[in-house]
Amino acid sequence: MKRIKEIRNPRTSLYGLSEYLKIAGRILLRNKLISGINLISLSTGICTVLLITAFISNEYNFDTFHEKGSRIFRAGFDYMSQGKLDGQGVSEFSASFGPDAKAELPGIEEFCRLTNSDESYINYKNQSLKVKGMVYADSTFFKLFSFKLLRGTPSSVLREPGNIVLTATTATKIFGNIDKAVGKIVKLDDKKTVIVTGVVEDIPANTDIRYESLISFSTLNTDSTIFLGWRGGYRYTTWLLLDKAANKEDLEKALPAFMWRHLNKQDAAFGDKTEAGLQPLSEIHLNHNSDSAVLKRNIRIFCTIALLILVISCVNYINFSMAQSVTRFKEIGIRRVLGAENMQLRIRWFTEALLTTGIAFVIAAALIFSLSPLFRQFTGNHFSVPAIFNNSVLLLASAILFVLLAAGTGFYLSFYHSGANILSNPVFPLSGIGNRFRGRWLIMLQFIVSITLISCTFVMYMQIRFVKTRPTGFDREKVLIVPLTGHKTNEVSAVIKHSISNLSNVSSVSAISEVPVEGITRNGFTPEGQTQAMMIHQLDADEDFLKTFQLHLLSGHYFRQGTNMDQDGYIINETLAKTLGWKDPVGKTINRDGSHKIIGVVKDFHFASLRERIGPLIITNQPWQGYDYLVVRYTSNPSLLISEIESIWKNNSPLPFEYWFLDSQFDWMYKGEQRFMTMLAAFSAISIALSLSGVFGLVSLSIQRRLKEISIRKVLGASVTEIVKLTSSSLLLLVLIASLIAFPAGSYLMSVWLQDFAYRISVSWWMIASGGFVVLLVTFLTVSTRVIKAAFINPAEILRNE
């Protein structure tokens, strides 16, 4: 009596709070199974939300560390052909845009051009290091961007031709430490001599400006094979630094006249047009990259999934509290009889919610530490655990989430208990004909989420399997790719090819300019009968290309060694013939640096991802600067083959030997989709585990409450099957209703996702229904296991005290 009075009328708020916390702690310990499920469920939901918040925060913080970032813009270009959009927001353009824009347009303080990232070997003394991120950059690079230079002067390290700046890691690999790097002379691909003038700090993960070395842009002026004018060489990205008083909108208004003078005036006669615009540095990552649309879509999906998992966790907590309240209504009634007010009872529910949520946050923090490496692997995101907990956005999100969870669940439970009839008909989430909706809609919501996620995962799996197994038009099995990196290697490529061809387990070898898997470069060509050039994919390949890739020739003939007319001719694919409306293309001509006769038509094959439709293609026999790859088709024993090719390589090339298999490169193309599917599968597993843990807990409480009823039914002759049916039928009905709701949701989500693929499966009803079947089966097994265990209890043990 005294204890209740003290709680009802606490002398101090601190004393009252401590008493409430003690009671909340006793209640948590009273039913360890339910409390354990509750805490694991909540902490999993919180961990998921916080990890995804960290992921999203990292994506939104790309390139925000540049001091002049608000004034830096990337030039973007829209290409129009015959009034149709042929490319939007493309950043690669000619080299002359930057210097001419600064000279003619107001408001531009400086510009910096960067080439596409390339790979090359850096040779120093007797060692060679392959650098994949080799970029040519103007001397203004460090004036625009805030990358920290560790050695060298920012204004001069890229000023002269032949200057190179290395990242700290690259310099350390070559010279041992960064202090020994500056002033050293190295060679690129054992050919071009450059001098190390600086060392830059390794670039952070949250930037789209990626490189391992920077070479002075003026070095390109010394290469006669490089185009730096307005016409051709669309491989340069131009960054503009605007004056402090300059206005982006004013500059964009001046760009149409500028483009007309330099390009569009001449192209208008052919129906072509190029429009230029400015892309803010802060918006590049999420709005102007080739994968920005997919990234934003994934962010939205991850946000939705995280919130849904959190909802499932909260539903478990609320349902458990409602279910446990059945055994606590007497306690509440006694407190009310003794004078406890509704506000004091509500404070009790808020205190329990506060304590449960607090413990769940502690467990979630431990989960973040242990799961963050796996999460980074799934998402490809490079944030670290310290970075997660130093993230102000994440800390704010944690605080808001804590308040919302504690206050929201506390309010719901206090509202529920204040409206419940504690003396007559308490509501249990899984019982009562008159309570088919109250409490049960929360369980059904869990099932809807789980079924939708499982269905989407299954459809993604079917699509990825489809693109991996769909015929590409060539045989990619038992094919080895050997890159011909380096000038000296290219000079002896014919010798290397001949030696490999003579190996016993090699059926054919071909030299090509690009591996026809991830896309092929486009160039301008003018077909016979037309006055304007059109962009067509161009692949350079030798006489053994068709045999090695096992392609089919539809008409004409392929290149024949030693025939000059053939070597000057073109092979086209059937898509190009259809595009040009040519029923008999052989003998027609296509112009590029002279007239070239079509000598054959090859059957269409996929040379890019199945996200894209097969485009027009020209195969030539005259590479611009030699072939870049050897393609080796073998019959057996790849280990022996690699050993033999490596021996041949070492006898002819000073550079290290490299290789990969064509089928593995093909699989790598869909790494992003596979990673996303794995993430979704993991979230699906979490959602169904949380849902079933909640159902298991509720069924356990329900059975505990109905043990006497079950025992009486057994005494009266009910079988175990009848008892299982009696206790699980209503729950399985919820799963069926949830499946009907989840079907249209899953179908819509997958139809949107599949739009990214030019070649895709059709979503059938059974694919979506698979999620409902899985949840129904697992739910039935979970419930049946618990019910059967209860059904086999000896009724005498339950009823002997009655």
TrEMBL record:
Domain ABC3 transporter permease C-terminal span(s) in chain numbering: 305-416, 682-795
Origin organism lineage: Bacteria, Pseudomonadati, Bacteroidota, Sphingobacteriia, Sphingobacteriales
Domain of life: Bacteria
Species of the source: Pararcticibacter amylolyticus
Domain (MacB-like periplasmic core) ranges: 35-256, 500-606
Location(s) in or outside the cell: Cell membrane
Alphabetical list of InterPro entries matching this protein: ABC3_permease_C (IPR003838), MacB_PCD (IPR025857), Macrolide_Exporter_MacB (IPR050250)
Keywords: Cell membrane, Membrane, Transmembrane, Transmembrane helix
Protein known as: Uncharacterized protein
UniProt GO cellular component terms: plasma membrane
Chief localisation class: membrane
Segments traversing the membrane: 36-56, 299-320, 353-375, 395-415, 441-462, 679-703, 723-743, 763-783
Membrane topology of this protein: Multi-pass membrane protein
GO molecular function, one term: transmembrane transporter activity
